[in-house]
């Protein structure tokens, strides 16, 4: 099947910066990009008139915790009234409460609620999403979540990348015993069942130490997992340096990471991933060094970190706005972060993340005439179509 997206005001190719083409078209054949530029239509072609619209590669959300049970609005209410996140966590709230509610939920319940969330993602222009487990904390429960992700991957219109996240230490278990369980049982089982592409760990003062994280990730590497790390969110424990040492595909959060850590990540080819929705939700003052990333030419990815505790934002265009407003990112860098560098953070840039001949035909078409309006129209939903592999998966006035 062929489709022509005709005469867009702007096409953001993401090749050499944003790579803006004005008044240009894209031809799609068999789910792939066939031609970009000036193209004439013929009668057999399905045409989308994109006059007055911006065409962008489908958004890549490279960090989410989309599968979980229950919700945490009570905790949200406490937090906004001034109770600190650390205090809530110590009192059994935070991740532990989602762990309890995820244990209580059946696979079907988890599947149905996550599928609804995926539809919302598509509505806001996301075409590829990473989903982490991590609310299980036991072999049986982590495998349960990862099986749900596998079902979603099979049934959803979006591309889904599954990650096994070593998230926290379960109650009534010694740290050392839990790390042994992760290394000796959970990682080998997840690998054997081929339920995850990446292994990730919450390396922070609220969770695992740098040494524990290194032990777990080194073992995951032996089983063939790509590596990710939640690093330096609540303090600098040199998580980003560890990412560089282990050549992680990405290091995520990075609020407390230093200039030295940025240099180390750049040298090692780690994609730094920033999560401004969390900064907003948790009212963090500490922000990642966006000016340093720009100066040292170490471009970051942006992701939602969608999760029930610290960010309930589905929309990548909103994440782009927040990166600009809260972090002071340049609009161009933020848009690249939500597409090209998101794809790199998942090791998928050879297939997605730019409008390049031969790549997958994943697009978001915005109902606005220039790209600066994407973050500027913060309160408005400006997505007109989301297209996955050449098929409209969400559309307004179609
Ligand atoms: Zn996270």
Helix content: 25-40%
Under CATH at level 1, the class of the largest domain stands as Alpha Beta
CATH architectural grouping of the largest domain: Alpha-Beta Barrel
Distance between the termini: 18 Å
Keywords:
single chain; 398 residues; alpha/beta; Urease, subunit C, domain 1; TIM Barrel; 2 domains; eight-stranded mixed sheet; eight-stranded parallel sheet; 15 helices; globular; binds zinc ion
Can you walk me through this structure?
The protein folds into 2 domains: 2-57 and 355-395, Urease, subunit C, domain 1 (Roll); 59-345, TIM Barrel (Alpha-Beta Barrel). The strands form 2 sheets. Strands 1, 2, 3, 4, 5, 14, 15 and 16 form an 8-stranded mixed β-sheet that branches. An 8-stranded parallel β-sheet has the order 6-7-8-9-10-11-12-13. The chain is globular, with a radius of gyration of 21 Å. Helix 8 (239-246) packs parallel to helix 9. The two termini are 18 Å apart. With 398 residues, it is α/β, with parallel strands linked by helices. A hairpin with a 2-residue loop joins strand 2 and strand 3. It has helices at 73-80, 85-90, 95-104, 107-123, 139-155, 175-192, 210-222, 239-246, 259-268, 276-281, 290-295, 316-327, 331-337, 340-345, 373-376; strands spanning 2-12, 20-29, 32-37, 46-49, 54-57, 59-61, 126-132, 159-166, 198-203, 226-231, 250-253, 271-274, 301-302, 363-366, 383-388, 391-395. The chain has 15 helices and 16 strands. Bound molecules: zinc ion.
